[in-house]
Specification:
The protein has 258 residues and is an alpha/beta fold. Helix 1 runs parallel beside helix 4. The chain binds acetoacetyl-coenzyme A. Acetoacetyl-coenzyme A (CAA) binds next to helix 2, strand 6 and helix 5.
């Protein structure tokens, strides 16, 4: 598939997807989210990829769903076609680690797609918000659900009800972003983190991601019980034997991703 709205490349074991609709501040039109889902499916099935970085431009990670496309939708067309289920959720369903590297605007669907990633590294210029209320709607791709889980109820209510933006510092204080870096260092910081993750055992990294995501679905005792069973199961992997042998032998581990 030749992509028109995203750029895709690989560097070692890291896949990089750059949203690339500068004329619309990377607004998430159908073509873009279809291409994004396609690129993610390819990275998921590529055994050489251990982590993905999703990024945008300096000015915008993504300014939200494409309002000009949404404008002509009605309830039945949106319900029947359900683009959020069909393509957008491919980010949330992606099983390998994925980092959002956010510079500039991450608004509406842009903020929601960033939150579907495992963590967000933000540049000092990043601005987050759920301004859908200004358009006479509310967030529709997880904003009302993922935002209060990522930050406090108070801040989620504040952002979704007023439609205001939050800068990188406020987002880091609130727990939405894991770290802030200078704008010029954003991609290299995200790549460093992605390379580090990709150097670990892929199945173990995937199970770790799955376990943390499970914590949002399960009660504490069920979650801990489930974690323990997965931990025990990891002793059936070659990478557990290698990782612990490497520690005992005072050498670097060479994971085989199995
Ligand atoms: N959809 C479609 N086009 C968009 C867009 C969007 N979400 N955001 C920006 N654009 C377009 C603008 O229409 C403009 O195009 P033209 O030059 O053809 O007019 C171009 O991108 C540049 O935008 P601006 O001129 O507005 O740039 P700015 O620097 O003055 O402002 C901004 C930047 C504050 C981000 C402003 O563009 C803006 O408010 N955008 C909309 C943000 C928004 O409401 N997002 C939520 C969308 S709904 C949603 O996401 C639903 C959901 O939950 C899934």
């Amino acid at each position: 598939m030749g992509y028109k709205t995203i750029q895709v490349k690989t560097e070692g074991r890291v896949g990089v997807i750059t949203l690339d609709r500068p004329e619309a501040l990377n607004a998430l039109c159908d073509a873009l989210t279809t291409e994004l889902a396609d690129a993610l499916a390819k990275f998921e099935s590529d055994g050489e990829i251990g982590c993905v970085v999703l990024t945008g431009s300096k000015k915008a990670f993504a300014a939200g769903a494409d309002i000009k496309e949404l404008q002509s939708q009605d309830f039945v067309s949106l319900y029947m076609d359900d683009p959020f289920e069909k393509t957008w959720e491919s980010v949330a369903r992606f099983r390998k680690p994925i980092i959002a590297a956010v510079s500039g605007y991450a608004l509406g669907g842009g903020c929601e797609i960033a939150m579907m990633c495992d963590f967000i590294i933000a540049s000092e210029t990043a601005k987050f918000g759920q301004p859908e209320i200004n358009l006479g709607v509310m967030p529709g791709a997880g904003g009302t659900q993922r935002l209060p889980r990522a930050i406090s109820k108070a801040k989620a209510m504040d952002l979704c009800l007023t439609g205001r933006m939050m800068d990188a510092k406020e987002a880091e204080r609130a727990g939405l972003v894991s770290r802030i870096v200078p704008a010029d260092d954003l991609l290299s910081a995200a790549m460093d983190a992605a390379e580090t993750i990709a150097s670990k055992s892929l199945p173990i990294a995937m199970m770790t991601k799955e376990a943390i995501n499970r914590s949002f679905e399960l009660g504490l005792s069920e979650g801990v019980r489930w974690e323990r069973r997965v931990f025990q199961s990891q002793f059936a992997t070659e990478d557990q034997s290698e990782g612990m042998a490497a520690f005992a032998e005072k050498r670097a581990a060479h994971f085989k991703h199995k």
